[in-house]
Amino acid sequence: MGFNITFKKSVFKDLKRLSKSEAKIILDKIDTEISKKADIHPQLRGRFKSLRKFRVGNYRVIYTIFDNNILILRIVHRKDAYKDKK
Fold first, then answer.
1. pLDDT for 11-36, tens place per residue?
2. What does the pLDDT look like over 42-73, one tens digit per residue?
3. What are the domain boundaries of the chain?
4. 4-80: CATH class
5. For the CA atoms of 8, 14, 20, 23, what is the dihedral angle to 10 degrees?
6. Residues 11-20: contacts with CB within 8 Å, 24+ apart?
């Protein structure tokens, strides 16, 4: 089953913070891995329980699935993935 992928606007800001090569690797992985097998990746727990995570190197892709669509919410370094913004 293939999924339709959309990105939250803030994801483009996340990608601009990365080098072009890192951003390309992450986008390629989203296209090959998440678009085909989004429902096999682990769900988060606690207050983020409706979200899923996918690891690409030192980065996390945080997304949600609804119907046949995927909404990419964040692309962030693993150490900062679950911290509150202050």
1. 999 999 999 999 999 999 999 988 88
2. 999 888 888 999 999 999 999 999 888 999 99
3. 4-80
4. alpha beta
5. -60
6. 11/72, 11/73, 11/74, 11/75, 14/74, 14/75, 14/76, 15/75, 18/59, 18/75
